Amino acid sequence: MELKIEPFHKNSYEKAAVLIKSPSPQIWLRELSMMQLSLEKITVFALPGTIANRIYGCLVVLDPGTKIKDIRQNQWLQIVNDRLFIPAYSIATPILSDQEWQKFFENKKSVLHPEFGFFELTDAINWAELLEMPQPVKIEIQTPAKAVFIPSAIQSLRIERNEEELKASLENPFSEEEALQKLPFNLQKVLSGNQKEMDKFLKYLDKHPEAALAMAIPLDVMHASRGKKSGKYVFGNGGNSYSLGNSLPYIGLVIGVVIVLFIIGGLVSGEGKFPPAIFILVFFIIRALSSGDKPWFASNGNSNGKSGRTALLDNERFLTLQQKYRKLADDYVNEKQYQKAANIYLKLLKQPPLAAKILEDGKCYSEAAYVYKNYCKDNSNAALCFELAKNYAAAADLYKVLNEHEKTGDMLAKMGMKSKACDYYKMVANNYVERAQYVKAALIYRKKMADPEQAKKLLLQGWENNADAQNCLNNYFASYDDLTHLNYAIQHIYENKVDADNSEIFLQVLKHEFSKDQSLEFVVRNISYEIIADKMDQNPAIAAEISYFNRHDKRIVKDVMQFRFLSKRQK
């Protein structure tokens, strides 16, 4: 007769012993202590290994009524007919009668296990002979004097610049020496629209294009400063203006006056002739209109308390000046003078987004953030640049405006304000929970708030609510670093939180856990067998899952295939 054990979907006998797999007696004692077992209430037998003179582990036989809350990574053993210990979730075959048990075993106890075979339990360990209590040692505790704490590493770094400094560095990139140059033209006449001085100015820019930055003469890219006869070129901050288009109403008035004077002159002379004095008057009026200087009838507005003027600039010169500005900006970028290049796009070409991009590419993040915020009204990019500049306070303020609570919490955490950061993280997690996104909520608690226990509770809540249940439970088991605790968690979830509705999902989770470590295979395989057996009548196809837990057993794979074939034929 051959006595052997086979897997079974449940425990048919009483669990009466614990198997500790380790050759070290020190580990035996540690495990017994962790399981809160007293040496007086147990009997321990050493078990041989499959190699000569090697120890496999020990068998801990419990006294009747002894309970264990957590057996850790150790294994339960059942006792058959009060004589034979076999692993949990297994059965001994063939079934023996009482006479056969008495004949083969008498009153001796033995253990049968697939890893080390059959062993008769004869000599229990006498701990009193092996253990020697340590002698008490008198300990004197000395309290060290308080020392000055010297941090070994920088935990956080912040660089904050106020907006006045950023504004000054962007809008005034040149020193006074660069600005005060000897100019070969009259700047005031250029600003007033004198054409001769304008030509001198453009020739000067051919040789000294960077002077445009020093004088801060902007180019109106809205095309109001160019044209053949009615365009305007704006200098300074706007205000006074003069152009041919603006003079048309006055020319009409002069023509009307001339006609009236002609009629009056004819009536006075009686001959219908125009008096010479009238010709002289008309000559001076037309000269005043065509002069490049400011005419007596030109508007004299004032904007922001600063004077400004407009003058006519043809398309060709407009485009030439625009190209010079862009080339100058490119030259500054190549020289890594990003603030000067940005100033050209910001103040002369009136293109703030390009100015901000140049500053950002040049890693002038504080200046780029200032332009994004104040000129482009782009708080999103401004917040990102403030973050890159390590100005976390300014970044946090903008992320609050944008309602990006997670980023706000990140900035506060970098500033060492963990409590306030957690308030924003909770808002993010609660939002995820409301949308049944428990995995994302758990990640916030585990990674951002360093609260793994609350993360586990949320993942279990997702499993119980069947909200992405499989993903929730996979992440729940992944949060266990200790395989002993993971083994217990798998059994606990199966016994308390698995029912007929979610058992098949739990089976898929077990397939993922099965390959993690060899120490998990025994428990995971037995639970999987039990689930498959319960579902076999309703879903015969589930029998194919047995193959996953026995990949190297070709006989089982063949039996599963034959079972599925017969099931289909019966249908």
Any chance you could write out the topology, listing elements then pairs?
Blueprint: E1 4-7, E2 14-20, H1 25-34, E3 42-48, E4 55-62, E5 75-80, E6 84-87, E7 90-93, H2 98-105, E8 109-113, E9 117-121, H3 127-130, H4 163-171, H5 176-179, H6 187-192, H7 195-207, H8 211-215, E10 233-236, H9 244-269, H10 276-290, E11 308-311, H11 315-334, H12 338-348, H13 352-361, H14 365-374, H15 379-388, H16 392-401, H17 405-414, H18 418-434, H19 438-448, H20 452-464, H21 469-478, H22 483-497, H23 503-514, H24 518-535, H25 554-570
Parallel strand pairs: 6-8
Antiparallel strand pairs: 1-7, 2-4, 2-5, 3-4, 5-6, 8-9, 10-11
Describe this entry's structure for a reader.
With 571 residues, this protein is an alpha+beta fold. Among the domains are: 4-127, no CATH class; 165-242 and 292-350, no CATH class; 480-571, no CATH class. Helices cover 51% and strands 10% of the residues. The chain contains 25 helices and eleven strands. The chain has a seven-stranded mixed beta sheet. A two-stranded antiparallel ribbon has the order 1-7. Strands 10-11 form a two-stranded antiparallel sheet. The radius of gyration is 46 Å and the shape is elongated. The two termini are 40 Å apart. Residues 176-180, 221-248 and 290-312 have low confidence and may be disordered.
